[in-house]
Every structure is written in C-alpha cells, then in structure tokens.
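A favour, since you know our structure tokens better than I do. Go ahead and set the record down below.
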Amino acid sequence: MSVFTRLLTEQGHTIKLYDVKPRKAKALAERYRLEHSTSLPEAVSGVDLVLICATTETVPGLVTDVEPPKGSDTIISEIASFKMKTIPALKKSGGIRPLSVHPMFGPDIDTFKGETFAVVSVNDSLKEMEMARMLFPGAKLIPLTPKVHDRCMASILSLPYFMNLAFACALTEGDLQLMKELAGPTFKIQMSVTQSIVGESPELIHSLVNDNVFSWALFQKFIKETQHLATLFESGPKSVAPLVGDLRDFFGGDVKLKSARALRNLMLESLKKN
C-alpha cells in the first residue's frame, strides 16, 4: 500500500487511508501527512477512487462492503495477485467503474513510468485500459483475461514461492553460516531470493501459494519433474544431455543464455553493495 500512497500523493491526488489495523493506517498517514479513517464507510465517502490493497481471499468481501452513492462515478480498483476470485465481486458491484490491475513491481520504485501492470478485464477492457492509463501514466499496461492472468501467475508467483520454501526447508539441517561463507554466485543469488520470500508475512505467503486455482496442478507437475530429474541423474551424464539441450532451446538458445549470465552478474554486484 505504501508505494501507491507515496506515488499517488506525488501525482497530486488527495489520499485518505483505511486499514483493518488502525495503527498501520495511522502510521502511514503520519509518515506522508495524510488523512486516515477509522471505518471503511468513512474512508470511501465522497471519493473518486477506492484502491483496495489486500490479499486475494479478502478482496471480494471488501468490494461488497464498499458502497458508493448510486449514480456516482467512483472507480473501485483492486490489486490482488489472483483475479478469478476477485473479478466476480467487481462484476456484481453496481453503479461503479471497476478496475482490476496487478502491479508487477516491488515497493522501491520512484515512478509508475516504465513499470508493468496487468490490466485484467472486468466488463469493458477498453474503458478499463483508459482508466489505468489515467491513474498510472507512462506505465506498461498488459490487458489480460482473468483466466490467462491467473494461469501465468501460477508460474510467475506461486511456483517460485513454493520452490523457494522447499529450498529453505532442505537447508535447515546444514550449517547455514558456513554455507554462506563458502557460497558461490549461484547459491548467493538463490539465497537472496529465498530470504526475501521467507521474510514476507505468513498471510501473504499462504495467499500467494494457495489462492490461485491453477497452483496445485503446477506444484504436482514440479514434484513429478524433480522425481524424473533424479531418475535421469542416476542414469548418468548421457541421460541428462538431451534434457539440457531441450531446455536451452526453450529458453532461447545461447544468445538468451548469455543475457541471463549478464543479468546474474549484475545481481551479484548488487548483492555485494548491500
């Protein structure tokens, strides 16, 4: 929520904050010298835009609770990670302009310009794209259906969280401090990603792993593939070579692999600075 509070304030919007945890809203309001409300009806009264920043499972209830005056031109927007559970609630809400977006960036950006948003269709994708352009000027907007979005997010969000939690669990019986001292580039990058995920709130982790209808089929495929890999490695190098060749082709061949190595080197330089 803080990144939207900061950037929308910088754009000149007047912001009013509400959170189910009043202390959180108060602290953020004091930080940016903004108004905060102690109730949802008070927070949404007379506003042009309601931006719901909550986990996927809580968004439908919040959308239902938001009741702008009939005939108002209020935009009701949500930024949940998965959309097949949130879009029906937006469709049912009458007398509003719905907007479902998914920001594909972290909290440390300085501007919306150049950043990616998935804009997920609710009723009228063309009008919703125009609303997104107005609210997030200069952003890269990608229009998607709820199903296509959530299927992609199973791979982009759910699977990486699941994999990294499994990786973290696999390390728990080792000497972590010694591993860090001996670590090479691959381990350092992997550890950086894993630690950032473990550092998230349990509620967010549970939501990102569990709230996507496509996640579990992908997790089962991942487990099946790890078992298949184990069988290949037991059979010797000749068994692994065709798989590696196929995967190189899938990821774009040698040129793309060189770009990936360059990106890895940049990530390592960033880790050294931090």
